[in-house]
Amino acid sequence: MKALILAAGLGTRLLPFTRIIPKPLFPIAGRPLLDIHIHALRNAGCEAVTVNTHHLAEEIETFIADRHYPIPVYSRYEPEILGTGGAIKNLEDFWDRRPFFVVNSDIVTDIDLRTVYDFHVHHPYPVTLVLYNCPEINTVSVSSDGFVSGFQAKETRTSGLHRTFTGIQVLDPEILRYIPESEFTSSGVAPMRRGTAR
């Protein structure tokens, strides 16, 4: 399998710190988030990773170049931020025929990514989203049979089951045909199968 780590964001919620250090390089217990994610993906069986970049791209690219990871780790610069969907489409030449991971670079998790991937390949749906129950920010509406039925702002949320998207997803390559080329696109725009979340 392959993976994309989304690292192009501006990190505005952590200003002024992100003026000098990109959010993916913030340390958690002494290790940059990006390093934690690369090792977690490798441990899950990932064979190659691409990191998309924009804000402070040189710092991220230097960080990757200075490491000697046991799998290839590439970077792909976006002159203009393309969004989650746009970044996925921008790597069309990187993906193969297998399902692939997309992981936000600014999350902290101990979820077993191999379990997520195995869950995905054993159902017939093209997308698995990993969701988590965080009542303060739950905005993803989920049906009783585990399908995402919508995305709502907290203040407009209706009754029913709601969860928070963690920023971890597994996608089949077929989804690439639904993403427009060379434009900003969010990947969270259609009903998708819910992944296991803890």
Task: List strands and helices in order, with pairings.
Blueprint: E1 2-6, E2 27-28, E3 31-32, H1 33-43, E4 48-53, H2 57-66, E5 73-77, H3 83-90, E6 100-104, H4 113-121, E7 127-132, E8 140-142, E9 148-151, E10 161-171, E11 193-195
Parallel strand pairs: 1-4, 1-6, 4-5, 7-11
Antiparallel strand pairs: 2-3, 6-10, 7-10, 8-9, 8-10
- Return the CATH class: Alpha Beta
CATH topology: Spore Coat Polysaccharide Biosynthesis Protein SpsA, Chain A
Assembly state? single chain
Beta content: 25-35%
How does this structure look, described?
The chain has 198 residues and is of the alpha/beta class. It has one domain: Alpha-Beta Complex (Spore Coat Polysaccharide Biosynthesis Protein SpsA, Chain A), CATH 3.90.550. The protein is globular. Residues 189-198 have low confidence and may be disordered. The strands form 2 sheets. Strands 1, 4, 5, 6, 7, 8, 9, 10 and 11 form a 9-stranded mixed beta sheet that branches. It has a two-stranded antiparallel ribbon with strand order 2-3. The relative contact order is 0.19. The chain has helices at residues 33-43, 57-66, 83-90, 113-121, and strands at 2-6, 27-28, 31-32, 48-53, 73-77, 100-104, 127-132, 140-142, 148-151, 161-171, 193-195. The longest helix is centred in the N-terminal third of the chain and has 11 residues, at 33-43. The chain is built from 4 helices and 11 strands.
